[in-house]
């Protein structure tokens, strides 16, 4: 599924030909009859996961020699392969790829088609609590083979790489059908073991040995397979945007724009993720390019709407404020934006700047953290001031058209294979199987891990003449992925609940600050979080096992934090009256 | 099931066994049913075969094919496969299942017959349809030996169905206390993973008995024994297979595991017929 398309421009003759060929192949069959065409694997959805899956299947010689594969995508994939923006424009959909994900993409041969200039290493992470300022700092450990925790890149860069990979190794058995919708899926015959018949918008009917849903959170394949899905909507929306900012201080740890920042506000976490370092004499061809980062801000749906409606300048001021201002002032600013939104107006950037300036003076915000001193003589000169590494650079602009918001959900399909519970010959990968809170940036990484395991199953089955649509051929896939995904998902879910909608007066703040300080003490847990947020699990233990173990540690530690919250509630029960009397009159 | 199923035509076919499996035949392709364990065993059996030879373009006979679990895999790997079974309802189920899969249309044939009848077709049976060969590059008979009445005669028939230089693959269960405990007591009676009554302990055959049989078996054409040298000779291989419950998978054990009791229960057996002609064997 394609959500956004960046600024595509120059046309590529090569890929045009590639698609034309595919269309031509089908032209005859469309007109002649609707007799189902056999496909061993039909993949629905040409998003990053669906394309990586197609790439991975293609890269296995055993698989592409033996099986016919077709990918169905409703939008024009040719636009993705022709996507070619300059270094001053970035798509708003970016992803933090773990080292394990990058390695997988390298193994299947797709990574060499990624435009590496449009990727950015994340070497450090700063995570702190918006209420207590308790903080964890992560760095990529020295012993990592690649000194990075993860690599940021645009989804489109990844999708284009997979398409280029497929175009570079064309195979008669692998087909891409763009601009094609799935009209309906029906089961052949009466019985539960009938094969899926996929009716397409171009009139063709595909009879699929295995139908794979890479078709996103509202997966039609999941609906066909009758796989139940449990979860809940968070009362939260995610705002994404492409941020332009001054290059970080050349002597700071973040000199090359390689630090990711995340602050847990009471309305949800806000993340500042590096996309591109600025111009540097050491980097050829970098002259004049803007230092760029990606925003992922989880907040209330109403505030998300109001912020995006207020225009790019107000949003960039609010991003700066969200990383710097105390909670009480942020809530005040949010209220201003919300009340303007409710009355059908928007606050002007000037008025907002004035409010921020006033509150900064009231809080005695230090110079390097000020939003008003931007462009003043202190920027990028002399020694970096103490604590400058702790905050993201000031945003001075947002790329036009990039702010967007989407609702956040927690969803997990009950099973990944229809054969386990529902209609057979179906499998789910990526968001079709699970939607996770974006606070750890794990969504696509989980999807790529799904792809790796599913392809492993398909390949193993092909080698022994197995039926790749059958349950015995595929059951190792959920065995490898279900619990691993669930662990990561529930950890993110708990983190979200722990950090959202707190009140400054609540003892939960105390628990939160203790929780984060505890986290900071535990080296093992830190390694685990890094494995999650980007580190290569192999560096801790082997492959999936390592990642799982690290996450298990994280879960245990969070359990401890949960206990602290419980304790805090009991404390509140005892001393609540006193605290209430002491603070109750304040607001 | 219809009484016509039971045709005591050959010495090895046991009418009760055939009736038993006919009754279960509708279950063959229920991957979590009576034959769930067999479905999981199939990849290991095929792996054992493909480790020995490339199936592409070979003539292969699957004796006692049941619902066609092994036959379909062999056909997908490119072997011209003939699956035979003494139960008509098995063949019916197997044919129906294969007919839904276009990848099997040209390479897989099923026949309701016995090994003996393939070797020497009875004059009465004007078997319509495609004619099947009399000898094969490979003959497989998986989990069948422990169900036949006269194993020696059955093995002799199988050996005659193999072309000179061809391969014979068997899988069966050894006659040991462990095998009794696992396959009859645990799997059938306690866990009901396998339909009770599937196995009869005294029909189980030890690997050493199979080896002895082929050591003494003189080849029809060359007069040579099928096995002249033992392990690692490229003439015979015995490998244990074990069920790993927590992975829901079977594992093929290494050759060295055989010395440590690896073939005490389920095992795979491979033997090769001597090449034709006096000087063709190196």
TrEMBL record, chain A:
User: Where is the signal peptide, in residue numbers?
Assistant: none
Biological process terms in GO annotation: ubiquinone biosynthetic process
Q: Which GO terms describe its cellular component?
A: mitochondrion
Q: What is this protein called?
A: FAD-binding domain-containing protein
Per its Swiss-Prot or TrEMBL entry, what cofactor is needed? Answer: FAD
Q: Which residues form the FAD-binding domain?
A: 40-254, 423-463
Keywords assigned by UniProt? FAD, Flavoprotein, Monooxygenase, Oxidoreductase
Q: Which domain of life is it from?
A: Eukaryota
- MF terms in GO: FAD binding; monooxygenase activity; oxidoreductase activity, acting on paired donors, with incorporation or reduction of molecular oxygen
**Family from the record:** Belongs to the UbiH/COQ6 family.
Automatic annotation (TrEMBL), chain B:
Q: List the InterPro entries.
A: SAM-dependent_MTases_sf, UbiG_MeTrfase
Q: State the Gene Ontology terms under molecular function.
A: 3-demethylubiquinol 3-O-methyltransferase activity; 3-demethylubiquinone 3-O-methyltransferase activity; metal ion binding; polyprenyldihydroxybenzoate methyltransferase activity
**Broad class of enzyme this protein falls into:** transferase
Q: Where is S-adenosyl-L-methionine annotated to bind?
A: 45, 64, 85, 142
One Gene Ontology cellular component term attached to this UniProt record is: extrinsic component of mitochondrial inner membrane
Places the protein is found: Mitochondrion inner membrane
Cite the entry's keywords alphabetically: Magnesium, Membrane, Metal-binding, Methyltransferase, Mitochondrion, Mitochondrion inner membrane, S-adenosyl-L-methionine, Transferase, Ubiquinone biosynthesis
Q: What is this protein called?
A: Ubiquinone biosynthesis O-methyltransferase, mitochondrial
Query: Which species is this record about?
Result: Pterulicium gracile
Q: Give the classification, highest ranks.
A: Eukaryota, Fungi, Dikarya, Basidiomycota, Agaricomycotina
Q: Which gene encodes it?
A: COQ3
């Amino acid at each position: 599924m394609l959500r956004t398309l960046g600024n595509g421009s120059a046309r590529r003759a090569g890929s045009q030909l590639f698609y034309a060929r595919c269309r031509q192949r089908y032209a005859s069959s469309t007109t002649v009859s609707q007799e189902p065409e056999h496909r061993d694997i039909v993949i629905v959805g040409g998003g990053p996961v669906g394309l990586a899956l197609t790439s991975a299947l293609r890269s296995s010689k055993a698989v592409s020699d033996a099986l016919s594969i077709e990918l169905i995508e409703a939008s024009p994939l040719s636009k993705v392969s022709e996507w070619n923006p300059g270094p001053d424009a970035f798509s708003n959909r970016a992803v933090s790829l773990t080292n394990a994900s990058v390695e997988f993409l390298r193994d299947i041969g797709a990574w060499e088609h990624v435009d590496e200039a449009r990727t950015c290493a994340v070497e450090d992470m700063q995570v702190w609590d918006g209420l207590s300022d308790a903080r964890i700092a992560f760095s990529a450990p020295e012993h990592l083979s690649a000194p990075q925790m993860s690599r940021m890149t645009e989804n489109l860069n990844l999708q284009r790489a997979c398409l280029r990979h497929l175009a570079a190794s064309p195979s008669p058995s692998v087909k891409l059908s763009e601009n094609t919708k799935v009209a309906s899926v029906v089961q052949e015959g009466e019985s539960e073991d009938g094969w899926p018949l996929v009716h397409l918008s171009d009139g063709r009917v595909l009879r699929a040995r295995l139908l794979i849903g890479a078709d996103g959170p509202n997966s039609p394949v999941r609906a066909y397979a009758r796989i139940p899905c449990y979860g809940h909507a968070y009362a939260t929306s995610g705002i994404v945007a492409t941020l332009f900012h001054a290059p970080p201080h050349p002597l700071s740890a973040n000199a090359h724009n390689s630090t990711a920042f995340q602050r847990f506000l009471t309305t949800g976490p806000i993340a500042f993720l590096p996309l591109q370092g600025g111009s540097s004499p050491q980097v050829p061809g970098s002259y004049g390019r803007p230092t760029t980062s990606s925003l992922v801000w989880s907040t209330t749906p109403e505030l998300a709407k109001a912020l995006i409606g207020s225009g790019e300048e107000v949003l960039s001021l609010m991003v700066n404020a969200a990383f710097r201002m105390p909670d009480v002032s942020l809530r005040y600013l949010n209220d201003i934006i919300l009340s303007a939104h409710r009355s059908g107006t928007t606050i002007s950037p000037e008025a907002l700047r004035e409010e921020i300036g006033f509150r900064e003076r009231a809080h005695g915000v230090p110079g390097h953290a000020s939003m008003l001193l931007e462009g003043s003589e202190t920027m990028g000169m002399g020694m970096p001031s103490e604590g400058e590494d702790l905050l993201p650079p000031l945003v001075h602009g947002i790329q036009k058209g990039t702010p967007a918001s989407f609702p956040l959900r927690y969803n997990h399909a009950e099973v990944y294979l229809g054969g386990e519970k529902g209609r057979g010959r179906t499998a789910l990968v990526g968001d079709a199987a699970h939607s996770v809170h974006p606070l750890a940036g794990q969504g696509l990484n989980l999807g790529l891990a799904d792809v790796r395991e599913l392809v492993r199953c398909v390949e193993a089955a092909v080698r022994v003449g197995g039926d790749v649509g059958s349950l015995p051929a595929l059951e190792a896939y959920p065995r490898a992925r279900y619990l691993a995904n669930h662990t990561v998902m529930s950890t993110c879910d708990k983190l979200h609940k722990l950090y959202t909608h707190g009140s400054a007066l609540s003892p939960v703040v105390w628990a939160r600050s203790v929780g984060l300080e505890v986290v900071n003490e535990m080296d093992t847990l830190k390694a685990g979080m890094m494995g999650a947020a980007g580190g290569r699990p192999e560096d801790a233990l082997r492959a999936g096992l390592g990642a799982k173990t690290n996450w298990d540690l994280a879960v245990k530690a969070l359990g401890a934090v949960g206990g602290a919250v419980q304790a805090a509630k009991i404390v509140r029960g005892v001393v609540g009256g006193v605290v209430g009397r002491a603070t109750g009159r304040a607001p | 099931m219809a009484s016509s199923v039971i045709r005591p035509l050959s010495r090895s076919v046991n009418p009760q066994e055939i009736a038993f499996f006919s009754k279960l035949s509708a279950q063959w392709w229920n991957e979590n049913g009576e034959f769930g364990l067999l479905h999981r065993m199939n990849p290991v059996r095929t792996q054992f075969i493909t480790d020995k030879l490339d199936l592409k373009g070979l003539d292969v006979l699957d004796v006692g094919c049941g619902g066609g679990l092994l036959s379909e895999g062999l056909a997908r790997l490119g072997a011209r496969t003939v699956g035979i079974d003494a139960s008509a309802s098995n063949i019916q189920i197997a044919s129906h299942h294969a007919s839904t899969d276009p990848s099997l249309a040209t390479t897989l044939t099923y026949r309701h017959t016995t090994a003996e009848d393939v070797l020497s077709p009875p004059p009465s049976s004007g078997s319509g349809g495609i004619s099947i060969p009399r000898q094969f590059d490979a003959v497989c008979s998986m989990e069948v030996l422990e169900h036949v009445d006269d194993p020696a005669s059955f093995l002799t028939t199988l050996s005659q169905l193999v072309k000179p230089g061809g391969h014979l693959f068997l899988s069966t269960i050894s006659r040991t206390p462990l095998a009794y405990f696992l396959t009859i007591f645990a799997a059938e009676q306690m866990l009901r993973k396998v339909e009770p009554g599937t196995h009869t302990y005294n029909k189980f055959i030890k690997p050493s008995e199979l080896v002895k049989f082929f050591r003494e078996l003189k080849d029809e054409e060359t007069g040579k024994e099928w096995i002249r040298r033992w392990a690692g000779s490229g003439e015979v291989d015995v490998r244990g297979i074990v069920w790993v419950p927590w992975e829901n998978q079977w594992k093929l054990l290494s050759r060295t595991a055989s010395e440590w009791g690896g073939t005490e229960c389920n095992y795979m057996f491979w033997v090769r017929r001597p090449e034709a002609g006096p000087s063709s064997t190196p």
